[in-house]
Amino acid sequence: MIIKEHNKLIWRTSGETVVIESWGENAFRVRCVVMGDVLDTDFALLPQKELNCIIETGTDTAKITNGKITAEIVPAASGWRKDHGHITFRKQNGSVLFSDIDHKDSPTPHPRKFRSIGGGDYSLISSFKAYKDEKFYGMGQYQIETLNLKGYMLDLAQQNTQASVPFVISSRGYGFFWHNPAIGRVTFGENKTVWTAESTKQCDYWVVAGDTPAEIQQAYMRVTGLPPMMPEYGLGFWQCKARYWNQKQVLEVAKEYKKRNIPLDVLIIDFFHWPRMGDFRFDSEFFPDPKGMAEELRAMGIEPMVSVWTPVDYRSENFEEMMDRNLLVHVEQGVDITMRFFDGETLYVDMTNPEARRYVWEKLKKNYVENGIHLFWLDEAEPGYTKYDYGNYRHYLGSALQVGNIYPQMYTRLFYEGLKEEGRFDIVNLVRCAWAGSQRYGALVWSGDISSTWDSFRKQVCAGLNMGMAGIPWWTTDIGGFHGGDIHDPEFKKLLLRWFQWGTFCPVMRLHGARNPHIDHVNSQGEMILEEGAPNEIWSYGPELEEIFIRYIQIREMMRPYIRFLMYTSHETGEPILRPMFYDFPEDNLVWELQDQYMFGPDVLAAPVLDADMESRSVYLPEGLWTHLFTGKSYHGRCRITVKTPVEQMPVFLKDGMHSDWIDTVKKFGKEENLKAE
What we know:
By secondary structure, this protein is of the alpha+beta class. It has three domains: 2-224, glycosyl hydrolase (family 31) (Immunoglobulin-like); 232-310 and 352-383 and 403-563, Glycosidases (TIM Barrel), CATH 3.20.20; 578-668, Golgi alpha-mannosidase II (Immunoglobulin-like, Sandwich), CATH 2.60.40. The chain is 22% helix and 31% strand. The strands form ten sheets. It has an eight-stranded antiparallel β-sheet with strand order 1-2-3-4-18-15-14-12. An eight-stranded parallel β-sheet has the order 31-30-29-26-21-20-19-33. Strands 37-38-39-44-41-42 form a six-stranded antiparallel β-sheet. It is globular. Mean pLDDT is 96; it is low at 671-678.
């Protein structure tokens, strides 16, 4: 049966209901259920105005057109019986974007395989044709050193260093968003593309057609939400380490930056500044006057940021009440623990529960906001289970197996909505994970607790670019990596220097890490508290590196008006700040394979130094005139060049004469000079 309903095309047969409807310009939302009506879930997709679609129906075929995209649905045979609808998506010119699998691709070609797992829930396998030479980009943040995801199988699951954001852009001219927060996987295979959900109630995806990657990516941003405007303190340099363990130390670091006349926008107080996980407050023994501390920092022009965690320790002053009110994630079987860390056994806050979010916000408001803290670091955002047995954890919205991937989005939403209630609009939430829609809640995602290695460094470049294509424009890393960096090791210093240079040309420039050797501390009762990492300020690595670090902080300050423009453009359109070369040069076939250089906005090409002893590197310059930021030498594009990489230089090129004043300004920078752009 075929039904036309406003902007919807509804297909029913053999127990399956498929609904295809317009959802934004040049886009469709496709939902399918077994024996029922489709659900109006709003995990990430925002309501869209109804568009005038063209719907044509035949005896047993139908098609719907919305601008640049057409969906055709026809009966498909499984053996001798026509038992499901086969969907093909086409461009305006009639060429195929992609389609469901058919009998040529599989002996059992049903494109949407639902298998009952009880209670009205299903596991789902949704399969589509594969195309030779198709390339895929996006999907969030995975620790792999590749940009093109063709040939990869990716887990749809949130873990430390991994952020699953299931939107992908195809080189064939479409974008595909798997609108399902279930645990699962996607395979971009040579024979077919397969999306799976381990527990779900329906198949739900969104697809858009566009002439360029930029058009496709920005269409996705319009239906899942645009980021806020990045506040001014997001544009400069951020200082952090694991961890500043008391108020005195925090203020000493801030004063030293001011004494040395080094610009600093944000100073971050990391984890375990609290008595117990889940207390959501400062430990008064180590932070006796948080309000006075925040005021003193702000008087120096430095914004304080504070870490918040999601696990609640059994010994926390809030645990019993939260447990009694069902505000914590429930363990279905076994020991009632979701994470063990340091000396604590914990349960996570159920961020899918509106009451839990309200409870936590009231604690945060009382203990942080009223003490002058307005910037938060949202750690343990996946959340980071000790054992990733998703089927054993239950949330307010359902099992973690069915809804678990939405957790970081709900976590970020808590802070965004709470701060807006307080009249704040300069909201940035530094968060360890994300899902679709997180960007509209001010999510600044960092790439988690990564290793301090060259291999890890190279992976971050690809991760950041794919995050931008997946709709997360605010992104950063721990400059130098988190684990394993020894401040006395010459090899680590090489890595840190090159990472710092690259961090200058990331959306947010943030130095962090748990540096070796660690330092032990005890409290007034003689109890061991969480250790402190070695010093991680820019003067901690010797005068030679400090001078180069200062130079790059000055470059960041010099670029402040440009970065402000990039953030405004992203706020208005969703355009990523960090983006692959093909975003700006889609007609150049050579740039689709480049993964070790990128565009920092439309005017700046950055080519980081990604190996320890790289004395020179190859850079591909697309069409245009490109001027080296440090040497001032210009090159005509559509060619590959080799440039030297002395320790004080990372190859950076300016397009078509833009920002030519930067070249002379950079030459003036040195240890004794400082520039604070207005």
